[in-house]
């Protein structure tokens, strides 16, 4: 038992070092081994021991095998991530490495755990594992699901197409045999069973493309894609620049009193609800039908307070 514990601890330490190496190179863009060593010696992981070329070569190979991330070298002996798309904002490697990198940073901050406050994200690990296995083996699943407000749960047989994390919740995009899609929240799933039936993934399906014209996970192609002009007041422009609402966001006008942004997407209810959540700091300027819909939602909210 003691040998197993020591082996696990060693593997855990190595894993943290791999994550640290990738995160260091990602943030630097291009970096020499000497600069990597300088940053390494400033961490508690180093214990004052330099980051040797032999260690770097071994870690570099393990990172490629474990994460599929290639660390290449240019003509000036600076190291960089060979395929930047692997580190895009919505990619699994980027999310996984970012999460683990933060975990490394927090674990390094010994004695400060009671002063570092984090948000809880439901893991849904059991259901996630079942669905991911079904996706990997192309098996249909049977989901017992209870929507909010429903007295009884429903049972659906679906082809699991993709999984998406949004606003601290996990969602499954499933396809019915008649090619219709449905998005289900993992925390509303009561039971999942993997069936013996297999399916073929639509070769034209791309998860990123499917959600690209939407704000979050709520999809409705009956709502047309259109440019929405938003006017931001106070400090809201700074927030929008740091955390864009959508990849299509662009800044179209700046004055001393406000800044106008434009996003092009399907203005579904979750998008409109987010705009309302920003109160008087964010205003829809156009198109007029969206302005009218926002006004109706505001009036309905006022009625609740009368």
What would your notes on this structure say?
This protein is an alpha+beta fold. The protein folds into 3 domains: 2-115, Arc Repressor Mutant, subunit A (Orthogonal Bundle), CATH 1.10.10; 125-211, Roll (SH3 type barrels), CATH 2.30.30; 226-304, 2-Layer Sandwich (Alpha-Beta Plaits), CATH 3.30.70. Helix content is 39%, strand content 25%. The chain is built from 9 helices and 12 strands. It has helices at residues 2-28, 33-41, 53-67, 92-108, 125-137, 207-211, 236-242, 269-277, 288-304, and strands at 31-32, 71-73, 78-81, 139-145, 154-166, 169-175, 181-185, 189-198, 226-233, 250-254, 258-265, 282-286. A 5-stranded antiparallel beta sheet has the order 7-6-5-4-8, with helices on one face. A 4-stranded antiparallel beta sheet has the order 10-11-9-12. Strands 1-3-2 form a 3-stranded antiparallel beta sheet. A hairpin with an 8-residue loop joins strand 4 and strand 5 (154-166). Helix 1 (2-28) packs across helix 3 and helix 1 (2-28) crosses helix 4 (92-108). The longest helix has 27 residues, at 2-28. Mean pLDDT is 84; it is low at 1-9.
List keywords for this structure.
306 residues, 25% strand, four-stranded antiparallel sheet, globular, SH3 type barrels, 3 domains, Alpha-Beta Plaits, alpha+beta, disordered N terminus, five-stranded antiparallel sheet, Arc Repressor Mutant, subunit A, 9 helices
């Amino acid at each position: 038992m003691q040998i197993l514990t020591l082996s696990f601890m060693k593997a855990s330490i190595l894993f943290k070092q791999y994550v640290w190496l990738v995160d260091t190179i990602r943030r630097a863009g291009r970096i020499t081994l000497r600069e990597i060593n300088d940053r390494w010696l400033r961490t508690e992981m180093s214990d004052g021991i330099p980051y040797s070329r032999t260690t770097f070569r071994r870690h570099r190979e393990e990172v490629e095998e474990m994460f599929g991330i290639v660390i290449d070298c240019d003509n000036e002996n600076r190291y960089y991530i060979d395929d930047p798309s692997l580190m895009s904002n919505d990619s699994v490697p980027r999310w996984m490495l970012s999460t683990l990198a933060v975990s490394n940073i927090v674990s390094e901050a010994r004695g400060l755990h009671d002063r570092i406050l984090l948000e809880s994200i439901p893991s849904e690990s059991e259901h996630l594992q079942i669905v991911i296995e079904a996706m990997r083996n192309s098996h249909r699943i049977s989901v017992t699901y209870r929507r909010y407000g429903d007295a009884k749960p429903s049972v659906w047989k679906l082809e699991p197409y993709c999984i998406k994390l949004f606003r601290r919740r996990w969602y499954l995009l499933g396809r019915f045999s008649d090619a219709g899609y449905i998005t289900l929240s993992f925390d509303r799933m009561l039971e999942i069973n993997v069936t013996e039936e297999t399916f073929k993934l639509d070769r034209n399906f791309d998860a990123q493309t499917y959600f690209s014209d939407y704000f979050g996970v709520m999809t409705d192609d009956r709502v047309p894609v259109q440019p929405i002009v938003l006017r931001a007041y106070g400090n809201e422009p700074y927030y929008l620049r740091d955390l864009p609402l959508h990849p299509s966001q662009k800044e179209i006008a700046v004055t001393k009193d406000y800044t106008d942004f434009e996003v092009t997407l399907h203005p579904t209810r979750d998008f409109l609800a987010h705009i309302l959540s920003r109160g008087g700091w964010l205003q829809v300027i156009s198109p007029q039908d969206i302005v009218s819909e926002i006004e109706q939602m505001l009036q309905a909210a006022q009625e609740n307070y009368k």
